[in-house]
């Protein structure tokens, strides 16, 4: 992990802790958690649901955006908004709507799994941009616009991780 990746990971960890602290999350969900990290967040689906329902704050999205291999244009396409609208979110620091928040968390999850499998962002990015026989000769990034495609991509990453090559 590079210095930049460690720095962003530390900031993501702090932002997750801040979101949990200032939110109205169910105390049962968070009482057993002393120090929740960004990676830990993906292990607790109920917390992810809470984050989605409350709306991802722009500060959290900005960190996720810098951590993932996706460009601003990719993000605009995933969120079904213009890049100009993304800029407005930045200027107003408002929370994303639940449907957009869900997409943000999905792309964060894909990145988390991809980094687990490939170990490096550059290798993961190359995989995303390379046509894949198991995914109908489509580039995995092309499938990330909807939840079914995202599930196919995560499924393929899981198979690669376990050495199951189709």
Describe the protein in words.
The protein has helices at 3-22, 27-30, 38-41, 45-54, 58-67, 72-79, 83-92, 98-118, 121-128, 147-161. It is mainly alpha-helical and 166 residues long. The chain has one domain. The two termini are 29 Å apart. The relative contact order is 0.10. Residues 49-104 form the Antitoxin Xre-like helix-turn-helix domain. GO terms for molecular function: DNA binding. Residues 116-163 form the Antitoxin Xre/MbcA/ParS-like toxin-binding domain.
Strand proportion: under 5%
- The string of secondary-structure elements, in order, is HHHHHHHHHH
Q: Mind telling me the C-alpha Rg?
A: 16 Å
Morphology call:
globular
InterPro entries: Antitox_Xre (IPR011979), Xre-like_HTH (IPR046847), Xre/MbcA/ParS-like_toxin-bd (IPR024467)
Protein name: DUF2384 domain-containing protein
Organism: Mucilaginibacter arboris
GO molecular function: DNA binding
Write a concise keyword list for the protein shown above.
mainly alpha, 166 residues, 66% helix
């Amino acid at each position: 992990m590079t210095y930049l990746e460690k720095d962003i990971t530390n900031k993501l960890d702090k932002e997750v802790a801040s979101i949990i602290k200032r939110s109205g999350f169910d105390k049962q969900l968070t009482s057993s958690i002393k120090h929740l990290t960004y990676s830990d967040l993906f292990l607790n689906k109920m917390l992810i649901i809470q984050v989605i329902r409350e709306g991802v704050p722009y500060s959290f999205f900005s960190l996720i955006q810098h951590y993932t291999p996706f460009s601003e244009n990719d993000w605009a396409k995933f969120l079904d908004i213009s890049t100009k609208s993304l800029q407005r979110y930045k200027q107003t620091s408002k929370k994303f709507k639940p449907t957009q928040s869900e997409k943000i968390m999905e792309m964060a999850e894909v990145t988390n799994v991809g980094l687990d499998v490939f170990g490096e962002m550059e290798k993961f990015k190359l995989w995303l941009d390379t046509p894949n026989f198991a995914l109908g000769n489509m580039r995995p990034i092309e499938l990330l616009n909807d939840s079914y495609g995202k599930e196919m991509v995560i499924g393929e990453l899981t198979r690669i991780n376990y050495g199951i090559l189709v």
